[in-house]
Design goal:
Layout (H helix, E strand, L loop, with lengths): L36 E15 L2 E2 L4 E2 L3 E14 L6 H14 L3 E8 L21 E11 L6 E10 L11 E10 L11 H11 L1 E4 L16 H13 L5 E6 L6 H23 L6 E5 L12 H7 L1 E6 L1
Parallel strand pairs: 10-11
Antiparallel strand pairs: 1-4, 2-3, 4-8, 5-6, 6-7, 7-8, 9-12, 10-12
Helix pairs in contact: 2-3, 3-4
């Protein structure tokens, strides 16, 4: 009886074939099957993919679940029937287990319906009518940087299609590492801020960045601070309350202290880096007492974490 090859068949991510697609890399959480060549590749800092686990009661695939975060998609071609799709599938399954993943689904699927639950085919991938012996694996792993969702779709080609030739084995590895979307809203130029002041007497700053639960300004804050510096340099009469705001996570006392220290950090940067007189800035902490959105969602909490300049 033929035995499945163990993950020893996997080569490391450092052993890349010269035929790999330019700029491509192996998935960061699992390597490739021996003889694989990367022919499709896409990576994004934030995107979404769909995954399907198993419905344990019905003993069938559950409804698709969309997951958002850092995405990596790799499409491999194994030329000339070097390995069956089942052999490849079992190798990936074993490798994922060894890497600390929990297998939530591993099964053979109907090639005509595979596209209903695996978005690899829209890579673009392969026609559901041009493959056979299709297998699907879905696994997850808890990681300090965010839970990882990973799927593998393997099929034997019944005919030529794009990068894949008849007899080849096609492998698609998708992963998402979950994370909240970063707030990258641009606060605008000094002129934009002046218009906001004229309209409402205040400017909300979302381009001021801190690490979680800390009050040290991150380098990414500089473009917004540059514009505030220009605004105040252009109008020597301007004076502001610099008001720090947090979301509702944590105690009221902690949030008040954190928001105060963050407001002080912004005022301090304007004084020391932009030569703004200290008496023109009054740092104040408001904690979570003045939300502008619901604290029940991450999107709402991101809007509530802000610094405001209120004209005095």
């Amino acid at each position: 009886m033929k035995k499945f090859l163990l993950p020893l068949l996997f080569v490391t991510a450092l052993t890349l074939s010269a035929a790999d697609l330019a700029g491509s890399k192996d998935n960061p959480f699992v390597s490739r099957f021996e003889g694989s060549v990367i022919v499709r590749y896409k990576a994004a800092n934030y995107d979404t993919l769909g995954f399907r686990g198993m419905d344990k009661e019905k003993k069938e695939l559950a409804a698709p679940v969309s997951v958002e975060g850092k995405m990596v998609r790799v499409g491999y071609d194994i030329p000339g029937g070097q390995a069956s799709s089942l052999e490849v599938c079992r190798n990936y399954e074993n490798a994922l287990k060894e890497n600390g993943f929990e297998i939530l689904a591993s099964l053979q699927v109907d090639s005509r319906s595979a596209g209903d639950f695996t978005c690899q085919r829209n890579f673009p991938g392969i026609s559901p009518y041009n493959s056979q012996n299709d297998y699907y694996v879905y696994a997850t792993k808890n990681d300090p940087a965010g839970k990882v969702h990973l799927s593998v779709f393997v099929a034997e080609m019944g005919g030529d299609e794009g990068d894949f030739k008849k007899g080849d084995t096609a492998v698609f590895v998708d992963s998402i590492q979950q994370k909240a979307v970063g707030n990258k809203m641009v606060d605008g130029t000094a002129g934009d801020m002046a218009k906001q002041l004229a309209a409402s007497g205040a400017v909300r700053l979302y381009g001021i960045y801190f690490d979680n639960d800390l009050a040290d300004l991150k380098p990414q804050s500089k473009p917004t601070l540059d514009e505030v510096g220009k605004l105040m340099a252009g109008d020597a009469a301007l004076k502001f309350k610099v008001v720090g705001h947090t979301d509702s996570l944590g105690t009221a006392e902690h949030n008040l202290d954190l928001s105060t220290r963050r407001a002080q950090a912004v005022a301090g940067a304007l004084v020391h880096d932009y030569n703004i007189a200290a008496e023109r800035l009054t740092p104040i902490g408001a904690g979570a007492t003045q939300p502008v959105a619901s604290n029940d969602t991450e999107e709402g909490r991101a809007k509530n974490r802000r610094v405001e300049l209120v004209k005095i």
